[in-house]
Design a protein that fits this description.
It contains ten helices and ten strands. With 246 residues, the chain is of the alpha/beta class. The strands form two sheets. The protein has a six-stranded mixed sheet, sandwiched between helices. The chain has a four-stranded antiparallel sheet with strand order 2-1-4-5.
Length: 246
């Protein structure tokens, strides 16, 4: 499976959010790093077809996603950064509602809802209103709805934000399991999360692709005279060296 972005350009007035941007995503986890304004959110919005591109193409295994329409959208699970949930709904009712929007019904809906609540550690609060949840718990609700229906392309925007260390590890391990047979795009400011699980990392700067390589490859790209933040160079050093001035 291959998701290819070719020569994508998106402008908002005089601002060019993506500038002739090209990259190919394969099965596995691709971490996405960039300062605010680098174009990360615009790229994800174009892939989910939430905004219209000015030029370029996005293809899945050679097929343009705009021509695939609903067939493509059924393959995508998206977890937004904004915690947009209905506060008066319970976790169970919210996830079930999203499941119905995705076309799940009857027994399949019930079983899938229970499955995702279990794997995101929300089963014990399934009947409590989301409005009373902590920020981390709301993150898990959003992750639960994203993985409904076993999507083959999973786009996660800050999935571990607000989680305690134990839950972050649990969610990271879960994401790693998901990536065995699907494309996972992981966008986060928590560099250590990306370094722990990503197969490759994409560095974005001012709407352009700066670098794309494995975490180890990016670390090796640092100059020999670079002085790491800690004793050994890490992906955090890569971020600081290439993007820290943004």
């Amino acid at each position: 499976m291959e998701l290819r972005l070719s020569n994508l350009t998106k402008r908002y007035g005089d601002v060019t959010a993506l500038d002739d941007f090209s990259v190919t995503f394969d099965v596995g986890i691709t971490g996405i790093l960039g300062a605010n304004g680098a174009g990360k959110s615009t790229m994800m919005s174009l892939i989910t077809d939430n905004v219209k591109r000015d030029s370029g193409s996005i293809t899945l295994d050679g097929k343009e996603i705009l021509e695939m329409g609903a067939d493509f959208r059924s393959l995508v699970g998206y977890m937004p950064q904004q915690q947009g949930v209905y506060d008066k709904m319970t976790a169970l009712s919210f996830v079930s509602y999203i499941g119905r929007l995705k076309g799940l019904k009857g027994k399949a809906l019930k079983e899938e809802t229970e499955r995702v609540l279990e794997i995101t550690n929300l089963s014990h609060v399934r009947n409590k209103a989301v409005g009373g949840f902590s920020g981390g718990m709301r993150q898990r609700v959003l992750l639960a709805q994203a993985v409904l229906g076993d999507p083959k392309i999973l786009i996660l925007d800050e999935p571990t934000a607000g989680l305690d260390p134990k839950e972050r590890i649990r969610i990271r391990n879960f994401i790693s399991e998901l990536a065995r047979d699907r494309i996972v795009l992981l966008c986060t400011h928590i560099v250590s999360d990306i370094e722990s699980v990503a197969d490759k990392v994409l560095l974005m700067k001012k709407g352009k692709l700066l670098m794309c390589d494995s975490p180890a490859g990016l670390i090796e790209s640092l100059p020999d005279d670079y002085v790491p933040v800690n004793h050994y160079p890490s992906l955090e050093d890569v971020y600081l060296y290439y993007l820290g001035g943004e």
